[in-house]
Amino acid sequence: MADFDAEPRMLIDGKLADAASGATFANINPATEEVIGQVADAGPADMDRAIGAARRAFDETEWSTDRSLRRRCLQQLKDALANERETLRGQIVAEVGSPIVLTYAIQLDSCIDDLQWDIDQIDAYAWEEDLPICEFMGQRSARRVYKEPIGVVGAITPWNFPFMLNLSKLGPALAAGNTVVLKPAPDTPWSATGIGKIAAEQTDLPPGVLNIVTSGDKAEVGEFLTADPRVDMVSFTGSSGTGKRIMARGAETLKKVFLELGGKSANIVLDDADFASAVPSGSMTCIHAGQGCAITTRMLVPASRYDEAVDLLKAAFEGFPYGDPTDAGNLMGPLINARQRDRVLGYIEKGKAEGARLLVGGGVPAHLPKGYFVEPTLFVDVDPDATIAQEEIFGPVLAVLRYQDDDDAVRIANNSRYGLSGAVNGGSLERALAVASRIRTGTIAVNGGQWFGADSPFGGYKESGIGREHGVAGFEEYLELKTVGLPADAA
Ligand code: NAD
Q: What is the b/e burial string over 205-235, where b = at least 16 CB atoms within 10 angstroms of the residue's CB?
């Protein structure tokens, strides 16, 4: 077995810890199906201890009030993560099955760099705001609004971009002065335990400020976190179904719930677009085997140039580089596990049964018998109401839909319970922007522009979520407002 130098233990109350029961679960490489390590398998008792530690650290240490302590510790964390990035890279590629090229960007390197944005907020953010003198029932008063951390944050993350999503929650939550219990996805525990090891060994983070609880169970330990009255907020990224469940559980103790959920985003190609550049990029649906919530998985093509677009897409899908994720030439590796692969294959069967035309792929690649691979798959002539045009597949599958005019394109794009992302490409920026402005979605790329960044708010309309991650809006998700009335002459 290759040595990934990975941390098998959790982080609870400042110490690297095995599960109280001693139980472990297997971490599996989805590209080889090999067990690559064992990781602590927490039960509710471990989660209980982690929540208690986070509560104590928030209530009884200086963490929530001492900004210079926070800046120092988080800078130590960021610098140490940067120093350890080659070890982390190997672990991420092995447990996620992510193409290694993605680790030189969003999957690892850029999210370590982006942590600096959160750290810089500690000094840059306006923690207090004075409002004008006001008169209320004959009395003149000054008012000051203080921005304060919420308290204990429960963070729950999925497996597709696990390291990035863990940092996207830890960065703002900790910089804002909260304490955190992070429960990562069972398929990608190292993307969290690696952070825990570095936090324990290379930073001065006070015990209990950051806790990491790994569990092979999909629900029980996470549910404990979402229901516990000592937790003030749950920050969740994952499927819309689990998001609804978390919101329902959180309602029992009226927790703040922040949700980044699924998507079924539309890529609209206008009839005056440069098809040679705009259309083949539809194959990027297959990047990381389609396991990205913001990937555009529906392409909307004008009826007047439909056949031209289909020919371009067919060539792009047939040439899409995939296979061994450690090969820098590949843009797509396996699905995360056998269940997810079978789910994707089930959607492909449903697409065929409902009358869509399968043009490329559709099965398990014959030359990759090991690993949870599915071929890049292109469906054309897809009905906008078909299952594969409505449900999130989370696999390398593009549905191509035909539209008549711009109004029709907007109607089809908005015919979705999701609203996370999207794209519009056209010959005229003005026209493309006009179409983009009518799409009910949280982010959208116009004529190839990218919206992602540490300072750009990211999140969804409709069933794609509640709240925003990144940017000032994302930072403020982790804050409470306290309005203080003062005598008018105090201002
Ligand atoms: P999932 O919802 O099954 O699991 C996500 C996390 O929630 C895991 O850590 C899991 O253990 C935990 N969990 C499961 N049931 C729970 C419960 N009842 N209570 C508490 N925690 C629970 O999602 P997944 O299959 O791991 O990830 C894929 C989904 O995530 C896709 O739908 C994708 O679109 C979505 N996603 C969204 C974003 C975004 O930012 N909007 C980013 C990545 C993934």
A: bbbbbbbbbbbbeeeebbbbbbbbebbbbbb
